[in-house]
Amino acid sequence: MKLGIIGGLGPLASVYFYELLTKMSDVNHDQGHLEIILHSCPSIPDRTEYILDHTKNNPVPKLIEIGQELENLGVDYIAIPCITAHYFHDEMSKYISIPIIHLIQEVKSYLIENKIYKVGIMATTGTITTHLFQNELNDSNIECIIPQQQDKVMHIIYDNVKKGTDIDMDIFNDVSEELLSKGSQVIILGCTELSIVKKEHHLDERYLDMMELLSAVALNDCHIKVKKDYQYLLEGRKTCKQMY
After folding, report:
1. What is the largest CA-CA distance in the chain?
2. Among residues 82, 144, 222, 240, which one is catalytic?
3. Predicted model pTM
4. How many angstroms separate the CA atoms of 84 and 86, rounded?
């Protein structure tokens, strides 16, 4: 099977997603790894900018164009290592006939399976204002706690990770402490740039990395066995087979 990736949103997140797909695969030789077609297109307009202001450039036409290109290249599934882009999932699916992994639905399955009903959300302002997590999770009685210090989250995403500068962990920890003090059982790293924070600073089990979840789901859908250390991410999936 083949996985198509709409990447470049941003580039560092796409690089790390490819690394995770490789690292998390339980294979013994090169030929056992998943065939992947990655189209990295950093010129796709900023998703948050458009969501907050529709006079800005619309990213959807380019997202659809690249999705259709990947489909024509014979991929079986499409993954998008950008959480905010999932706001356009339904619209994209009207023009792309192969499955686009819906990561927000996947995280709901994971939380229900693990009896987690109160979560903190660290994500872009675009993701927060569209209630992307809240609408999906609240339907299953999962409470979402949004940080009052949202500007600090955006600083980490846009001024640190996207610009390739050192991550200000004092700011990151301030937001984490706020969410945990309000009763969050886990903090969802709801932006793929925040996965870079976990990678570089080895965050503990209080954080759920959406990029790791996307990698596990993509491998599982494409029939690649997931390493034992990551199999817990698949426990809530109806399509998860016993061997994975």
Report:
1. 50
2. 82
3. 0.92
4. 5
Pairwise CA distance, residues 32 & 26, whole Å: 9
**How crowded is residue 209: how many other Cβ atoms within 10 Å of its Cβ?**
20
Sheet strands side by side (includes 35-40)? 35-40, 2-7, 77-79
Q: What is the DSSP string of 187-215?
A: EEE-SHHHHHHHHHHT--TTEEEHHHHHH
Backbone angles phi, psi at 96, to 5 degrees: -125, 120
Q: Which two tokens stand for residue 43?
A: 């010129």
Interacting residues of 204 by C-beta distance below 8 A, sequence separation 6+ = none
Q: Dump pLDDT digits (tens) for 44-70.
A: 999 999 999 999 999 999 999 999 999
Sequence-distant (≥ 6) Cβ neighbours of residue 163 within 8 angstroms: none
Catalytic site includes residue 41:
no
Given the structure tokens 């034992």, which residue do they identify?
Answer: 228
Q: Which one from 41, 144, 191, 240 is the annotated catalytic residue?
A: 191
In whole angstroms, give the CA distance from residue 240 to residue 244: 7
- Each residue of 124-173: pLDDT tens digit? 999 999 999 999 999 999 999 999 999 999 999 999 999 999 999 999 99
- From residue 64, alpha-carbon distances to 58, 75, 98, 238 in Å are 11, 15, 12, 28
What is the distance between the alpha carbons of residues 89 and 87, in angstroms, rounded to a whole number?
A: 6
- For tokens 């001024």, name the residue: 159
